[in-house]
Amino acid sequence: MRKKRPSPALIVSLLALFVALGGPAQAERLFGSKDIRNGSLQVEDLSRKARKALKQTPDGSVTTAKLMPGSVLTGTIADDNVTAADLAPNSVAADELASDSVGQAEIRNNGVGAAELADNSIDGGEVIDGGLLARDVGRFAGTLIVDFSSLPAGACQAASVTDTPMDTANADISNDLIVLSPAATWPTTLTYGAKSSTVVDQFLIYACNPGNGAAADPPPTTFRYLIVGF
After folding, report:
1. Rounded to 5°, angle at Cα 72 from 91 and 49
2. Prediction pTM value
């Protein structure tokens, strides 16, 4: 004869009886998992603690393979939960960023190079006051030493500047602006200037004595120059 298992209602009644008579330990010894038919217990048969445990998701139980495409959205992720370490290289492109969402604080020093900038994307508003040096503006910049001979009153001399970066690059600077500045040792009685040369990658420095008195012999002088393209 086939042995008939007790019904869930009978089991619950007996549990209550044994708890009253001998406590939970006695009931636990008498009934095990094999005594209860699969699928026979309902939610209301479970304790509050058991129901709460079933509603929780253990850490690490949900993996990428269990997520449908598009199932994780911005509202699903807590603020500051995704960091750079969670992102694959090149996984965030421009179309994933909201307008004005990336500011100076989000960019590391020297993190943006010329390759990341679109043509004409930077104007004066994006440049910090005083943030540019002369060499950031000009095509070429450098220093040189010129030693003019004695200049009689009303006379001028010119020196051709060679062996410069533009000379090495064979760059045409014939139509560029040449900015020139001498060291403090340059005599205040003499004038100076720069002009284009007949050789397109060179320029001339000239000095003049505009006085009508004695000759002036300037010392060897360091000049700084800046070539600005036009």
Report:
1. 140
2. 0.51
